Amino acid sequence: MFNVLSIGKSGLKANQYKMDGIADELANVTTDGYKKRTISFQELMLDQDVNVGTKSGISKTDFSPGVLTQSEGTFDMAIDGEGFFGVKDSNGNLMLTRNGAFYADAENNIRNQSGDILQIEYFTSINEWEGRDVTISENGSIKGGADNETLGRVMLYMPENLANLTAIGEGRFTLSPDENLIEQTENPALFGKIRQNFIEGSNADMTRAMTEMIITQRAYSLNASTIQSTDELMQLINDIKR
Predict the structure, then answer these.
(1) What is the average per-residue pLDDT within 56-81?
(2) Distances from the Cα of 217 to the Cαs of 36, 57, 102, 211, in angstroms?
(3) Which of 56, 111, 215, 239 would be a feasible disulfide site paired with 14, CB 3.0-4.6 Å?
(4) Would you list the domain boundaries of the chain?
């Protein structure tokens, strides 16, 4: 009977974790570049014959693309296909992201809303860009001025294994230390096309998430009822002993 209480407790904990994941997905329905995470359940076994409950955990991040929406920002970009933008923080750490909402700061650095700097291969000094109408082609080439001079190129990256990416918030991911990173210049065929004046939205599915929430709430309620019924039965047994 004590196993029933333990199984019910594990069910409550697992479904609470699942609910946390659903809440995170719903909260980021409108977050640009957000990638939802898949929560899976696993059976807990004491041995080959005895089940002692369940547990849940993040099985993987879903990197399916979000919907591209038009934007007016000069440096707003979306990737139509595979690949990630590279950004570096103030410590020089490289991160990958699908959130292409970038802007030029007072020093003409191209940054995201977190202050990370977009990785660009510069052909001319960024200070010479000021005052030019900048266009960004599908392969990332940045051109501007009356002579349509090539000023630089937006770099795209791809890890060999997406499963080795770790989410750190705000649509950014870090790589495992031993993970190899492929650059667009090494194999352009692996990468999608850059769309200037577009932003990739969240890939969260509100309808699916709401359905999952109802199912999870029901499962949580059933586990709570199991614990309550077991507790009442144990109380009845104790009363009989007296």
Answers:
(1) 89
(2) 20, 17, 39, 10
(3) 56
(4) 2-59+203-241, 68-200
